[in-house]
Amino acid sequence: MPELTFKGKIHVANHHLVVPFHELVAVKSKGVAKTPGLHDNLLLHGDNLLALKALLPTHAGKVKCIIIDPPYNTGNEGWAYNDKVNSPLMRDWLGKTIDREDLTRHDKWCCMMLPRLKLLRELLTEDGSIFICIDDNEVHHLRCLMDEVFGEENFVANIIWEKKYSTKSDAEFLSESHDFIVCFAKNTRSFKLRGLPRTEKQDSIYRNPDSDPRGNWTSDNLLRTEARDYAIFPIKSPKTGKETYPAKGSSWRYTKEKIAELIADNRIWFGEEGNATPRFKRFLSEVQTSIPARTIWNFTDVGHSDEARKEVNQIFTDFTETFATPKPIRLIQRILQIASDKDSLILDSFAGSGTTGHAVLKQNAEDGGSRRFVLIECEEYADTTTAERIRRCIKGVPGAKDVALKKGYGGSFSFFKLGEAVALQTILESRDLPSYETLAAYVFFTATGEQFDPAAIKPKTGFIGRSRGFDVYLLYTPDIEALKDLALDLESVRKLPKPTGSRKRLVYAPTRFMDDALLHQNGIVFSQLPYEIYERVEKSAK
Ligand SMILES: C[S@@+](CC[C@H](N)C(=O)[O-])C[C@H]1O[C@@H](n2cnc3c(N)ncnc32)[C@H](O)[C@@H]1O
Questions:
Q1: Ligand 1 neighbours by CB, cut-off 6 Å
Q2: Across 424-467, where does the E strand assignment appear?
Q3: Atom of ligand 1 nearest to the CA of 352
Q4: How far is CA 201 from CA 4, 160, 206, 298, 301, in A?
């Protein structure tokens, strides 16, 4: 497979692995939830590289549909490459706003996207998919990055969204009127897209000119553009006796016997007069109630950019919201309709004005779903625009035309900001130790690569979760003095519950007072905090 090279690639290829885990700290006052929690609808305020990594312990493998709309890199969006990659080249790039004169702007964009795409992939369910809005500035680079991260065999479609209804009369060459939505599955073998419900317009081509008791029908061509000898014969109209041969170079779709059967069943249409080229009658009652979505999405069906701006403005009637590049709600709903189940988790890590959250709430209101969303936004307007839009959608927008929005869609969401990095090397010297749950999430996920569930924690025994190979324990308390005395010894081993099934017990503790033989005898794998925390113990244990 051809591979894209770009400046800085070597430095970012594994950057997602070294990005530290950060605590997620609830800001109750900014959410709409009695008790904020990570299983609620979420808005995370912070850089998505850190936020995605922070989500891994609780959300890896759980997201059914990712919808992102990253900077298009037009050269006038005011974005800057800010990832703290450890390389002089990259440090030199930091914080500089990217404009059209910047000769490395495409390299920077690729460097920004690559580690994020890798983390996003880890968050998807096996049957999940990702939809990425983009335009001609970066679509070709994006396709290459996606081939690399997701595998070209998992490419699904490059959808064209008609974003404008008007023509730009002063366009230099062509009046650009579409964006792309690049779709990849995590794994096309386990992936399915839903069809769209048939529309009245689609049904309106079905009529019943011969008053067939089976109801409305439409007709399909009976010809195949290939001359197969066995299917070249005259078809005789029962009404007029006129015989029709397939056109030169073609043949009928069916054998002589099959055509005779179809004529007897009144399934072949020869036109009102009985003289037309025969066609096959297809009944509306026999076609599927849903049809596959097409790869061209018109603004009449899914909205346009102006509509999106109006939608944001109708929510912020008390001040002028100047968010420049929102997507229409109908566009995001279309993705939800084809790519999510009613109870799916949806993620948007470039949330902007929060359209994805709005669309999830609206779609749930319309089809009785219980989808949840996770939004990530790094700018200050994460609170004043993104969260405010969600707050208003939940509580109601008095001036809204949409009755459900006016009343409020209801539900809840929790607002989190990024806290301290869980800096494990310094953990024992630090005064600011991470909470038990934060460290448990980190330890469990890093050691097992499996999902952490905070509800599984049993503080009495130090149990923090069960993976395929281990019952995992963490002996830890966020108190430096207490930590000095905390060790795995025979007494603490005796207090541990028996292992479940053939699992071993994996115990994290600051130190141990037991030798290897004794640990082995007791079926225990010991990991010392903090140095061995990085090891994927399960892998090495195999
Ligand atoms: C094109 S806008 C998304 C618009 C959104 N689809 C909507 O309908 O409102 C891109 C958003 O991604 C945000 N963003 C860019 N880089 C980010 C990062 N590293 N972490 C989090 N958000 C980021 C920007 O601040 C901006 O709000």
A1: 47-48, 69, 71, 79, 325-327, 350, 352-353, 355, 376-379
A2: 463-466
A3: 27
A4: 44, 21, 10, 14, 12
Which regions in the chain score pLDDT beneath 50? Answer: 426-429, 531-542
Whether 437 and 24 have beta carbons less than 8 Å apart is answered as: no
267-288 tens-digit pLDDT: 999 999 999 999 999 999 998 8
- Global pTM value: 0.80
Number of domains in the chain: 3
Are residues 189 and 212 both part of a single domain? no
How many whole angstroms separate alpha carbon 32 and alpha carbon 100?
Answer: 41
- Range of the structural domain that residue 319 is part of: 20-75+116-193+293-418
Task: Give the Cα separation of 463 and 503 in Å (integer).
Answer: 14
The phi and psi torsions of 155 (rounded to 5 degrees) equal -70, 135
pLDDT of residue 533: 39
CA 69 to centroid of ligand 1, rounded, Å: 7
How far is ligand 1, taken at its centre, from the CA of residue 377, in Å?
6
What distance in angstroms lies between residue 468's CA and the mean position of ligand 1's atoms?
A: 37
Q: What is the DSSP letter of 531?
A: G
- Whether the CB-CB separation of 33 and 412 falls below 8 Å is answered with yes
Asked whether residue 429 falls in the same domain as residue 353, the answer is no
Residue nearest to atom 4 of ligand 1 (CA): 352
Report the separation in Å between the CA atom of 408 and the middle of ligand 1, taken as the mean of its atom positions. Answer: 25
Burial (Cβ within 10 Å: 0-12, 13-18, ≥19) of residue 426 = exposed
Supply the residue whose CA is at minimum distance from atom 14 of ligand 1.
350
Which residues, including other chains, have CB under 8 Å from residue 414's CB and lie 6 or more apart? Answer: 26, 31, 33, 36, 37, 38, 40, 41, 42, 43
